[in-house]
Amino acid sequence: MPAIVVIGAQWGDEGKGKATDLLGEHAQWVVRYQGGNNAGHTVVLPDGQNFALHLIPSGILNPAVKNVIGNGVVVDPGVLLEELAGLEERDVNTGNLLLSADAHLIMPYHVAIDRVTERYLGKAKIGTTGRGIGPAYQDKVSRVGVRAQDLLDEKILRQKVEAALEFKNQVLVKVYNRKALDANEVVDTVLEHGAKFAHRIADTRLLLNQALERGELVLLEGSQGTLLDVDHGTYPFVTSSNPTSGGAATGSGIGPGKISTVIGILKAYTTRVGSGPFPTELNDDMGELLRKNGGEFGVTTGRSRRTGWFDAVISRYATRVNGITDYFLTKLDVLSGLETIPICVAYEVDGRRCDEMPMTQTDVHHAVPVYEEMPGWFEDISGCRTFEELPANARAYVERLEELSLARVSAIGVGPGRDETIVRHSLT
Ligand code: GDP
Ligand code: IMO
Ligand code: MG
């Protein structure tokens, strides 16, 4: 059996947690391959229990699944322990969680630098989650990062932290006027945390490849989304990793040829948290209605999510950049009760029509949506379990999105619960 990737097709919070939980029923492994605890993935179990996962794969709620935090993820040791404790308190078995020896660690100085740089940027800030994600990936690429395996060798860990702090303390103190961090304190805390999860550190790249050779199904759970990708997103208003499907191979150590299916999670409208361009954003009562009806408040930071209409320029782009084979369209139920529903089919940029994502960031900032209106529906659709049960106008909306997005919509979410889903084509 092959590997399947679940990715966010927009700016994150599309419902990846729910999709992973649902598909995880058929998988032996669920793997996070990038990002860190900037993510907030919600899973609602059949008994109504609601879980918010940040760092641990959503497969953890399924006792039969083995979960891996892959090499591409950045891990805050304290956060990992807190999340494990929170799950254990709620009787979730966490025995099935492994951490790649090559995953980089988010150190206290990364969190400090993330927060001060944002403050320093003022109005130009990215609106990060303040979890140290960018600075941790900076160190990885600069080849001065600390990895999970360093927790197993105190001497090396000490050397690395001392070397890192020699420079970072200068920056913290001289540029940002903050307190210096003490290397011994940092090492002692990280070692204390690390001792509690050292038994989970493993050569996950080897284990995943062996699992694939045995014919097991590996589900790769993306965090964030296509437009937050550091290469393909709305740079610089992005995260510092590759949520797009190519990142699933590098972030887990699986060859791209093993990936047979790329499932794009796509919200029936659009949301974004943090700064950056958002062509279909609604700064009016309608935007407020979508936020209220969709419960659009961040799982990680509690911030209000910006809301807007569906943007097919983005979904077409996501299909191409990720090689999406199937879409899981979420939150269709949130659109019930609207007279008409606009869909952005193209942009107008300085008087020119653009059917595809503009090449330059300046043009993206100038993009004005070209809308097409679809008739809405008033029925409550949360009880629908087949496509045919949906009102005709809801079916027409889905079919139009499918046509504009250049990939089939294989599943549709009509509520947050696992069973509140319409499956049109099997995804596993
Ligand atoms: P993720 O980051 O992509 O996992 O998404 P989040 O968990 O941050 O946000 C998605 C929110 O929508 C969560 O509260 C989910 O429980 C909820 N959700 C997911 N799918 C549906 C759906 O089809 N309908 C409704 N009403 N809510 C959904
Ligand atoms: P999930 O996995 C939505 C956004 C932040 C900010 C930008 C950079 O739940 O979809 P970072 O802390 O990563 O350096 O912030 O990315 N962001 C997200 N937005 N959902 C997420 O995760 C996000 N993770 C980061 O708001 O704009
Ligand atoms: Mg989220």
Intertermini distance: 9 Å
Strand order of the largest sheet: 9-7-5-2-10-1-11-15-19-20
Overall residue-averaged pLDDT value: 97
What's the overall geometry?
Answer: globular
CATH topology of the largest domain: Adenylosuccinate Synthetase, Chain A, domain 3
Biggest sheet overview: 10 strands, mixed
CATH superfamily of the largest domain: Adenylosuccinate Synthetase, subunit A, domain 3
Low-confidence stretches: none
What's the CATH architecture of the largest domain? Answer: Alpha-Beta Complex
CATH class of the largest domain: Alpha Beta
How many domains would you count in the coordinates?
A: 2
- Class by alpha and beta content: alpha/beta
Radius of gyration, Cα only, in angstroms?
22 Å
Helix content: 25-40%
Number of strands: 20
> How much of the sequence is in beta strands?
15-25%
Instruction: Tell me which ligands are bound.
Output: guanosine-5'-diphosphate, 6-O-phosphoryl inosine monophosphate, magnesium ion
Number of helices: 12
Quick synopsis:
This protein has 428 residues and is an alpha/beta fold. Helices cover 32% and strands 21% of the residues. Guanosine-5'-diphosphate (GDP) binds next to helix 1 and strand 3.
